[in-house]
């Protein structure tokens, strides 16, 4: 499973990238707003660091303006994936951009039928939001399993990009289901390294190091 990092925080991207943990980056208007930076400038900076797909989201709601925005975003770098919402206008924009050879990430997906439409429209990635479904007591991971089954039934190339990930368990579940990509905030990716028994075990070892005066250097 590929790891995308869901942030526009340059330092966080650099830190994870240095460890080989970043196969791509996703941003959205809220993350760009949080960065306090110009969308074109910060997206370019991310593309200079990461060679994998970098999602940049359109902000228009109508297809014509979305397409113009998408074409402008695509010019930032060859690894841009234009992010469009799962609306009818978003699907129209997806079809045109993908026919032009631009990667498209269709976002704000909350149902298997929406994912099916995105695949038919030539999406490179479909982004189902598991955390926001869990927030309203609908099992987000069940949706990932349904999309996996549908895409495999018909051999769609669209990659399932699990989004709105909130916990390390979401990462494990996405990997077990066979999602192609998971995008997560830096803290969730770093949190995957934590285990209470690792901490407890290390405390025990350190106590014995001190008691026995073990030295290596
Ligand atoms: C990624 O593409 C999404 O924009 C992101 O994962 C949304 O996460 P949130 O539901 O925590 O805002």
Automatic annotation (TrEMBL):
<keyword id="KW-0808">Transferase</keyword>
<dbReference type="GO" id="GO:0006098">
    <property type="term" value="P:pentose-phosphate shunt"/>
</dbReference>
<dbReference type="InterPro" id="IPR033919">
    <property type="entry name" value="TSA/FSA_arc/bac"/>
</dbReference>
<keyword id="KW-0704">Schiff base</keyword>
<feature type="active site" description="Schiff-base intermediate with substrate">
    <location>
        <position position="83"/>
    </location>
</feature>
<dbReference type="GO" id="GO:0042182">
    <property type="term" value="P:ketone catabolic process"/>
</dbReference>
<dbReference type="InterPro" id="IPR018225">
    <property type="entry name" value="Transaldolase_AS"/>
</dbReference>
<dbReference type="InterPro" id="IPR001585">
    <property type="entry name" value="TAL/FSA"/>
</dbReference>
<dbReference type="GO" id="GO:0004801">
    <property type="term" value="F:transaldolase activity"/>
</dbReference>
<dbReference type="Pfam" id="PF00923">
    <property type="entry name" value="TAL_FSA"/>
</dbReference>
<dbReference type="GO" id="GO:0005975">
    <property type="term" value="P:carbohydrate metabolic process"/>
</dbReference>
<keyword id="KW-0570">Pentose shunt</keyword>
<comment type="similarity">
    <text>Belongs to the transaldolase family. Type 3B subfamily.</text>
</comment>
<dbReference type="GO" id="GO:0016832">
    <property type="term" value="F:aldehyde-lyase activity"/>
</dbReference>
<dbReference type="InterPro" id="IPR022999">
    <property type="entry name" value="Transaldolase_3B"/>
</dbReference>
<comment type="function">
    <text>Transaldolase is important for the balance of metabolites in the pentose-phosphate pathway.</text>
</comment>
<dbReference type="GO" id="GO:0005737">
    <property type="term" value="C:cytoplasm"/>
</dbReference>
<keyword id="KW-0963">Cytoplasm</keyword>
<comment type="pathway">
    <text>Carbohydrate degradation; pentose phosphate pathway; D-glyceraldehyde 3-phosphate and beta-D-fructose 6-phosphate from D-ribose 5-phosphate and D-xylulose 5-phosphate (non-oxidative stage): step 2/3.</text>
</comment>
<dbReference type="InterPro" id="IPR004731">
    <property type="entry name" value="Transaldolase_3B/F6P_aldolase"/>
</dbReference>
<protein>
    <recommendedName>
        <fullName>Probable transaldolase</fullName>
        <ecNumber>2.2.1.2</ecNumber>
    </recommendedName>
</protein>
<dbReference type="InterPro" id="IPR013785">
    <property type="entry name" value="Aldolase_TIM"/>
</dbReference>
């Amino acid at each position: 499973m590929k790891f995308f990092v869901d942030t526009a925080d340059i330092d966080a991207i650099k830190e994870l990238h240095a460890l080989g943990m970043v196969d791509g980056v996703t941003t959205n208007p809220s993350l760009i707003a949080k960065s306090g930076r110009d969308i074109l400038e910060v997206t370019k900076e991310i593309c200079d660091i990461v060679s994998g797909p970098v999602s940049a989201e359109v902000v228009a709601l109508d297809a014509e303006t979305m397409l113009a925005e998408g074409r402008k975003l695509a010019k930032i770098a060859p690894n841009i994936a234009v992010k469009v919402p799962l609306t009818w206008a978003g699907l129209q924009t997806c079809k045109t951009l993908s026919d032009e050879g631009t990667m498209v990430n269709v976002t704000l997906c909350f149902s298997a039928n929406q994912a099916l439409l995105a695949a038919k429209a030539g999406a490179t990635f479909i982004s189902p939001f598991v955390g926001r479904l869990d927030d309203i007591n609908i099992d987000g991971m069940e949706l990932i399993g349904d999309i996996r089954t549908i895409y495999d039934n018909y051999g769609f190339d669209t990659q399932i990009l699990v989004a709105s990930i909130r916990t390390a368990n979401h990462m494990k579940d996405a990997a077990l289901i066979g999602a192609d990509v998971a995008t997560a905030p830096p803290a969730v990716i770093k949190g995957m390294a934590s285990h209470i028994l690792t901490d407890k075990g290390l405390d025990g070892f350190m106590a014995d190091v001190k008691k026995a005066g073990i030295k290596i250097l």
